[in-house]
Design a protein that fits this description.
With about 300 residues, this protein is of the alpha+beta class. The chain has helices spanning about 70-80, 120-135, 190-200, 210-215, 220-230, 235-260, 265-270, 275-290, 290-299; strands at about 40, 55, 60-65, 90-95, 95-100, 160, 170, 175-180, 185-190.
Amino acid sequence: MIRSTDHNVPSAQDGDDRPEPAADVVKNGTMRDRAMSQDTEPLGGGAVNDGRVLREGQTVRRPLPANAATLHALLKHVRSRSDVEVPHPLRVEDQTEILTYVEGEVGLSPYAPWVSTRDSLVTVATLLRRFHDATVGWQPPSDAAWSTAFADPAGGSVICHNDVCIENVVFRDGAAAALIDFDFAAPGRRVWDVAMTARYWVPMTDPTLPAAVERGVEDPIERLRTFVDAYGLGRADRRILAGVLLEAEEASRRFVADQAASGSPAFVAMWDAPARARFERKFAWLQANSGAITRRLLN
């Protein structure tokens, strides 16, 4: 899994420049209720910008992504056209972007039991659907730039978040309320982002692997059906989802392997021999169960 808040990509813009309350959360090591502290606080959770993201009162300061203007436009559009909470960019100072901070809870490893409940799975799916719906028909800036790290190779008509991992969803009152950390966002198909998100929240893995065992997940295929039903994925996309899951898993593997090869310490640790073996087992399980996945989604 990629559990990254802060990569060298973006955060968003498309309307009103006025500061607004509550709009971005960055992780801080463990699940906790977000307090109203006004002190400067280093925020963890990111694999690339770890240690360089700071909370100051109700704002978050983080390294300026290369395509910040595009992502700022996206976030402002979503905030103006939907009830989906996303980060609100306030200003840029040199090579730092300042965003508003979202109150709520996020799950961090080791995950609390609420992360794996059916209710959490369903509300993440419906939040993702509302986000996608909000991007339909949006015209990005003429000079828009997007991350290619997890971008849908087929392109598409919505904007995909591409990293709706457990750490990138803010919960309130037991329901998914906000999406954060849009560094990997890019145009794509709904089915692509459903696959990327299901990898984390189902999770789509061999149920004998620790990622499933530690969360008490015994039937990933049934949980995937719950997620897909809650999202409202169409029948044509259900037919191809098993294959898209394999594509998404390969994109994740390639990204981590490339980062590890470049010497990034966080990713070197994420790509040791045991981690590579777990990936191979996960990928093999997805391949072996592709038919069962498709049958369950269609019947």
